[in-house]
Every structure is written in C-alpha cells, then in structure tokens.
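#lab-general

N.A. 3:47 PM
ok so I finally got the sequence cleaned up, no stray characters, all 401 residues accounted for. can someone with queue access submit it? mine expired

B.Y. 3:52 PM
send it over

N.A. 3:53 PM
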Amino acid sequence: MTSPPDVLAGKHILLGVSGSIAAFKAVALASELTKIGALVDVLLTSSATRFVTPLSFSAITHRSVSGDVFSASEHPINHVALGQGADIYIVAPATADCIAGLAMGLGDDPVRLVALSTRAPLVLAPAMETAMYENPATQENLATLRRRGATIVEPEVGRLASGGSGQGRLAEPAEIINVARAVLDGRHDLEGRRIVVTAGGTREPIDPVRFIGNRSTGKMGFAVAEAARARGAVVVLIVGSVTETPPSNVEIHEVGSASELGQALRDALEDADAVIMAAAVADYRVDHVVDHKMKRTDDGLVLRLVPNPDIIAGIKGDHLVKVGFAAETHDLLANAQAKLLGKGLDLIVANDVASPGSGFGTDTNLVTLIDAQGQESLPMLPKRVVADRILDRVVELLARV
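B.Y. 4:20 PM
back already:
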C-alpha cells in the first residue's frame, strides 16, 4: 500500500535567502524541498550572492532564481507574479537586517519585495550572532511579524561564525521543513501544550564497561517529538541510547538506565499535558553491578536479573494523557490490549517489530492504535506520518480531560 503524499509535494514554495554565512544551508533546504516534490523558486538578496551563487540553486531546483530587482534582467512585476502564485514563503536565513526590513515593509530587494506582494503564509528562520538576535530591536521586529501572522523557526544554540557559542544558528533544514508542513497543514492544535516524549533504549550496567541493552534507535520517538514541535507544542525529550540525531528546538534530557529514565520522567511531568513513551525501557536489570571490569574466565558468567519498576504504570495524573508502545513479535493485539489496561494508558501503539520494514532502525512502521473506543490498524507508513496519526489521537484525548 502506498504512503500518502507529503503535504509539501506539488506546492509552489518561495525560498528567500538573505546575506548570512548560513546561506549554504539554504542550498540544502532547497534540495530537500525539491526531493519532496515541491516547486521551489529562489530569491536572493545581493548580499546573499556573496555567500552562494544563483547557479547553486538553479542546478538543484531546475527553476528560476531571482536576484537584484534593479538589474536590467529583472522587473518588479515578475516578483509580484511570483508572490501571487506561491503556497508558502520561507525566508532562510533571515538576517537582522532582512527581518527589520520585513517589519518596516521595505521592498528594496527581491526577498522583501515579494513579502509585500504575496498573500502566502510567511515562515522566517533567523540566523545571526546571539547579541544581534537578543537585541531588543530584533526581538520587537520579530514580535511585529508574529502579530502579522508570520511563523518564526527559532534559531538553535551552538557554535557561531564568530567562534563563540549561543543562540543564533540557523535551524536545520529538517526543522524548517517540518514547520512548513505544519503551516500548510493548518495544524497548530498543540499550541501551548507541554508534551513529554521518551526515545531510544536503556542500558542496564553489568560493570563499568558492559551493559544489557536493546535494538532501539530512537527514530520513532524523535519523529513524535518533531511532529509535536511542528504542531506548536513545548516538547521535553528524554533520550536514552540512540543512533540518530535528536531533533532541534526541543528540551533534551539524556539518560542511561531505566532508573535514570524514570527519574527524568517524573521531573519532566510537572505541568505536562501528555506523555508519549516511545522509549524501549529494559524490563530487567542486573541484581548486583560490579564496580570494576570483570575478567574473562573459562567458567562462564551467570547474571541474576531482577525486574525494573514499571515506569509508565506508576505515572499518575487525572489530567495527563498517557500513551505507550507495545513492541511485539507475536500475539500483537492481545498483548497490546493487556498493556493498555494493565498500565492505565489512554492509548497504546501496537508495533509489529517482526514485520519487514517495521520496528527498530527502519524508516517506516506498521502499527495499530488501540484505546478504550477500539482499534485502528494503519498501513505501513513513514514514522513521521505515524507520529502525526498518534498526535491526532492525543489531541482528541486532550479535549476530553
């Protein structure tokens, strides 16, 4: 069964690029949007062309790239036509100067001129030094643009072009794309909600160098965190052992063992609206952890395992929506139904990890959503799509509490 098309597929997307060292990421963003199937037209400020060339974009998008509106080859009417035909307008990177001009309604370059002429939703991804981003003038300009309906993709914290560190790094293309999806999909139904997500596996130590673990990579939990963030939620992500890179613009807490995950979860649940337990938490731990590296012997090794506390079953809260996962290899629905009732869950995601293309390390999942009203079996879908289907249910459950 084929997957549903991406919400950005076939959409006419304008990509405005202003003069920042982060402009190279705009090339990657244009590439990813084109791979999805979007029609991408690029607009460059004159300062942007000092960092990237129009050819870099046209070679990827196979579409027009607009530069200086005052050159002989350009005409303002062309930019008006571009703006009128767009489904969404993304400006990335958006420098402090670009943001100020947008807030004041200036039209002295292609990026700002099109912003004046288009009725498409505007998505801005700022990139600049921390002091510039935190400057009251920049913050007031961003607030003005928000009031007019613009969506801001907050810059990340990290190493900056100056060599310093702070908030100001351009968000990654995947984050910008997720926000664009949410804008076009019209879903901001988790705005103001605090969602706690767990992802990855746990490691139960045997000695300082050995542990008992599992095959979880974190992909499903990360997809849920990304989707919740795109729909407006404040996301707290508790991360165990993973092989993937966590999403940006979420609060991240790294843990090792099931005990550490449980403590981090209890701390994070204060004021939370929902918890989604996508992590693969170890059912057992070693009875006694040796404080030095054990030496190999020919006599073999016997470990005594004792049960870990059932973390999600111990979570209480009358107004907290609880979502669990059941990763099973047989008797999927019966085992999941038992967990739904035994752990006091509002929703459980039954995941057939034995099916090809589903389970740990894959980009797709084959799941059944089960709650008190019944069950819904989904076809094989990308994990990001599965994440949104789970969140659709969470939104419904939040409306009832």
